[in-house]
Input
Amino acid sequence: MRQLRDPVWQVRGTSWVWDEEARNQICAASEVWSLRQFLRAPGNWPDDLPSNGARTLVVAGLDGSLDLLTPGDAEAWLGDAIKPAILSFQDEWGSDGALVFWLPGGHSRVRANTATDEVGWLCHSPHGHQIDLGRILWGQANEYPQEILLRDSGRPAGLFHLRIT
Output
């Protein structure tokens, strides 16, 4: 998987971030939207995004919602509710805004296969199943997601995808 050291993820595209330092670079805790707010916004996006000089929307709660669903229901919900909301955000903001999903435990739950660049989400116990995020959210365009690095020798802070189709 390609690595990204550029802060482009802070102002455009869609990211899944699990590093607190990375999240703190783009927003204050009071600016984070709930997943419910995000899912109600398509067709009624705000005139200004709440974070990072009106360039970024940070959303929390995706991980908790996935944990409440069976793997099959989670896959269906990601494709039927989350992906359309992401696409709506992209249609509204284009390259003028970033959407960031805050996943505090994502470092141990997001799995990237280095041989294929497939990206999965490890479901909470007792399921132990892995959801194929790449297939569901970005149509297996596996060459496109990039690992976000805050420093050259650091661990990935998240994943960045410029545009989901």
